[in-house]
Amino acid sequence: MALLPPSRTVRVARPRRSIRLVPSQDKRDALLRAATQVFARRGFFNAQVADVARVAGVAAGTVYLYFHGKDDLLASIFERTMREAMDEGRAALAGLTDPVERLRATARLHLGRLGRDRDLAIVFQVELRQSTKYMQRFSSTFLQEYLAMIRDTIAVGQANGSFRDDVHATVAAKIFFGALDEMATNWILSRRRYSLVSQAETVVDLFVSGVGAQTTGGQGLGTGVGTG
Predict the structure, then answer these.
(1) What is the C-alpha to C-alpha distance for residues 129 and 111, in angstroms, rounded to an integer?
(2) Alpha-carbon distance 118 to 189, whole Å?
(3) Mapped to the 3 state alphabet, what secondary structure does 25-76 carry?
(4) Distance of alpha carbon 60 from its chain centroid, rounded?
(5) The whole model's pTM is what?
(6) Using CB atoms within 10 A of its CB, is residue 56 exposed (0-12), middle (13-18) or buried (19+)?
């Protein structure tokens, strides 16, 4: 009788499971969104990195793969938002030559961005200002760039006679920014719910009535409001 060959164990290769890798930038953005929510609702100084991780749905250690800690998260929220604001602002202003319309576009973008994201507005208007250290750091970087963009618009208006030239362009830019800043702060503190971006026209009209070039009738340019 013929001997049968010894049985062999046949191993069937299993198809490998495809692993979906989350791009690093996507994970970083998700962590920044989570941090914005946590800082706004718990307060920066009361928040913990573990809180951010929980909202983002990751382990606490994952946060440290992308950020050094809580301070780095706050700084990154500011830098990312300001970078986006600058890019959006430059794009919007590229096709505008009239200085008043440029100010209107700037105001709408500024208030619109914060008005779309209440958590972001709280972080910018409240949490970032809890420490002189943070304010000094942030004011010396992107904020200066942002103010320069406003100042350049005002300087153009002074050069073409739209705005009075007895006010320093940098001072005027800070006044304009301060008005927008105060409107945003009032919006998040108010119990009344209203559209923040709807305040942009009022801010620009009042500002222009103050810096608008004087006409023979003593009226601010384009507003019909006396400049006093």
Answers:
(1) 18
(2) 11
(3) HHHHHHHHHHHHHHHHHHCCCCCCHHHHHHHHCCCHHHHHHHCCCHHHHHHH
(4) 26
(5) 0.79
(6) buried
Question: 49: which 2 tokens?
Answer: 């990195």
Q: Residue 98 carries which side chain, given as an amino acid letter?
A: D
Centroid of chain to Cα 55: 21
**Residue 48 burial (CB count, 10 A):** 12
| Structural domains in the chain, sorted by start | 75-211 (1.10.357.10)
Task: Name 131's Cβ contacts closer than 8 Å, sequence gap at least 6.
Answer: none
Furthest-apart CA atoms within the chain: distance in Å: 125
Distance, in Å, from the CA atom of 113 to the CA atom of 125, rounded to the nearest integer, reads 13
Kindly report, residue by residue over 124-170, the tens digit of the pLDDT: 999 988 877 777 777 777 889 999 999 999 999 999 999 999 999 99
pLDDT tens for each residue of 13-56:
444 443 344 457 789 999 999 999 999 999 999 999 999 999 99
- 220: three-class secondary structure by DSSP: strand
- Cα–Cα nearest to 163, from 207, 105, 224: 207
Question: Taking the CB of residue 77, how many other CB atoms lie within 10 A of it?
Answer: 20
User: How far is 3 from 138, CA to CA, in rounded Å?
Assistant: 85
